[in-house]
Amino acid sequence: MDWLYVLMPISGVTIFWPGLVILGVGVGIIGGFFGMGGAWMVTPGLNILGFPMAFAIGTDIAHMAGKSLISTMRHGKFGNVDYKLGVIMIVGTVGGFEVGAQMIMWLERIGHVEVVVRWMYLVLLGLIAWMVFADVAKKRRKEREAAARGEEVDKLATGIEWHKTFHKIKIPPMMHFKMAQITCSAWLPIIISFLTGWLAGILGIGGGLIRMPALIYFIGCPTHVAVGTDLFEVMISGLYGTASYTYKGRTELVAAIIMLVGAAMGAQVGTVATKYIKGYGIRIAFGLAVIGCAISVLLKLMAKWWPPLATTFDNMATTLILGLVATMSLYIFVKMVQGAKQEVAAKKRGMS
Fold first, then answer.
1. Nearest alpha-carbon partner for 58 in 249, 207, 261
2. Number of Cα atoms under 13 Å in the Cβ half of residue 58
3. Residues 296, 324: contact at Cβ < 8 Å?
4. 74-83 as b/e: b if 16+ CB within 10 A
């Protein structure tokens, strides 16, 4: 079965290449659907497949940049991208990203990059999963209370409404973002983008894992606009990150190209699916994916804690991350096909 493995020329490791294809296609679908590069799955996924963590980060960023460009173009056609908001956030994203990348180089020099990044992933994934499901629970409670009063909850209302507090901060300049339908201080998206950019540089993600929830809960974007605008930001930070990590010699271009071919096709499916699955359907699926990813990272840590069972835990982590990507991709694809069929049927009824 040697033909299933390929030697990576820069990192010097031998990789199970079908795993790269699965990650590329699957994360292309998932990334286009959730509005992020999917690196929150790919970086741990590449590490689990055998890449050293620094190479997993750099390689993922390179593949992510091209895929996000394709997804952004598709979302732009659907009117899901607030380019004005995205451009404002670039200021903080680029600065924060470089600070994070420099921290990774320092952690690699002192030999702690693997453990630190994995624990940061676990903490971050746990916080995001809690935030998403707390939001869903609060929204449903509001709907039940409104139904008991014979009323209806505003469809754009959310469970967690932290953005209303942040909008009360009136530090000039104040800006209105038409597509997102919000008005706030320009400093709010700049500060948030700096923090997400910093985490992106450390964790090897385009920032989408944290920026998409941040756009919803801290800035107040509707979910579908947060998805499209976030992909625009992922594209920008990904292009910058690719240049930064390639210059530092931590990008495995062969693996990035293998994944990008599949991701380019998958991104089309994921983007179109957002037309048929809106709002909280996206958030619930996102929360479940985050939990699954966190479990796979924990299994990889457990392999270090119990050496006699290291192979078992490593195999479980690999199976889980690839299975998660495949299952979530299939779910999104099926929902897209169902939605398209309903749309065609409705048009036929309208014509008749």
1. 249
2. 23
3. yes
4. bbeeeebbbe
Domain ranges within the chain, ordered by starting residue: 2-351
> Can you list the alpha helix ranges (DSSP code H) found in the chain?
17-34, 39-49, 53-77, 83-110, 113-148, 162-166, 187-203, 208-214, 223-247, 253-273, 279-305, 310-351
CA gap 232, 259 in Å, rounded: 20
- Contacts of residue 16, defined as CB under 8 A and 6 or more positions apart, other chains included, come to 4, 5, 49, 50
CA pair distance 68, 332, nearest whole angstrom: 18
Q: Under a CB-based contact definition with an 8 Å cutoff, are residues 221 and 229 in contact?
A: yes
Q: Say how far apart CA 15 and CA 241 lie, in whole Å.
A: 23
Q: Which two tokens stand for residue 160?
A: 């967690």
Contact 245, 101 (CB under 8 A): yes
pTM: 0.60
Rounded CA-CA distance 176/160 in Å is 22
- 7 beta partners: 14
Terminal Cα distance for the chain, rounded: 57
Measured N-to-C along each axis, helices 187-203 and 83-110 cross at an angle, to the nearest 10 degrees, of 40
Can you give the pLDDT of all 352 residues of the chain as single tens digits?
777 888 888 878 888 888 888 778 877 787 767 655 555 667 777 877 788 877 887 887 787 777 777 777 777 777 788 888 888 888 888 788 788 878 888 888 888 777 787 788 778 778 877 877 887 777 778 777 777 777 766 555 556 677 788 888 888 888 888 888 888 888 898 888 888 888 777 765 555 667 777 888 888 888 778 878 887 877 777 787 788 888 888 888 888 888 877 777 787 787 788 777 665 666 677 777 778 777 877 877 787 778 888 788 877 877 777 777 778 788 888 888 888 888 888 888 877 6
